[in-house]
Amino acid sequence: ISKGSLLVRYQGIPLIASKLSHMECKVLVKKLMRRTNSWLSNSLSFGGRLQLLASVLFSIQVFWCSTFLLPVAVTKECDIILRSFLWHWVGSSKKGGKVAWSVVCSRKAEGGLGIKDTRSWNRAAIMKIGWDICEEIPCWRNILHSRKFLIHKVLYEVKDGNSFSLWFDPWYLGASIFDKHGMTVIHDSGLPREVKISSFISEGRWEPLFLWELIDISNTSAIIPLSAGSDMIHWMKKGGMFSLHEARKAFIPHNPIVQWSNVVWFPRRIPNHSFCLWLTFKGAHRTLDKLHRWGVVQLVLCTFGCGQEESIDHLFFACLFTARI
């Protein structure tokens, strides 16, 4: 078998019975490399590269990201390819970019470009599998991967108690009894592991637990309100609805909203002009004053011959020549 190839594939993805390895993801990495190498990124404008990133290159990852929890090394490798395509070209020896990748991947309203980094998108897509199972939509066993992400983002609302495990579901003030007290309390109680919460609800009220090991649990659960109907699971809060957009927000840092985002990203914008303006607000243009500080050039006078030192503020707001353009 050649390096990176697999014996069995279904709809383009490997059929495996163990944890996905880096080698088995080579197909995804090669697809990204092949597509980016087919474009002359150094001859494309930044606006054009951004549009290709957000549409074509992102779509290549969607199927894999929504099917497997990818190894961290693979997600990093995918992000390196995307970052190189945006700032340089794939295969370039140059590292970094005009703006940090973490900033690029933040929301446009927060001063970023809205690019979805592979890691957070992958986690959000896998979380959707867990949510589909909570909603009783048939899915396959990747719930095991999504559970650890999903469990802290959902709200369990106890009603009749027939659907939730007494021990293992996070109905008990946002956590499960097992998480809070461990296996010891289950053994000491003498109750089966499969017992449901409904065993301790009668006529819409909590039944007191007289077992010594469960007194604290009984006192705490008594303050949890019960209502008529079947148990429900909500996203984050009562009435909350799951979406991939909201799920991804749980995995990315939140930055302050910037006041200038609507100036840059308006409906009928010219993509390259918007990208140039975005670089201006981020202070990322390599003007002569920066190049001088880095030891690249000696002269810092404005390129347009106005006699002033060239900086971003001067070039875009104070230069007499650019003001007439």
TrEMBL record:
Protein name: Zf-RVT domain-containing protein
Every Reverse transcriptase zinc-binding domain range: 242-324
Species assigned in the record: Cephalotus follicularis
InterPro entries given in the database record: RVT-Znf
Record-linked PANTHER family: OS12G0587133 PROTEIN (PTHR33116:SF78), REVERSE TRANSCRIPTASE ZINC-BINDING DOMAIN-CONTAINING PROTEIN-RELATED-RELATED (PTHR33116)
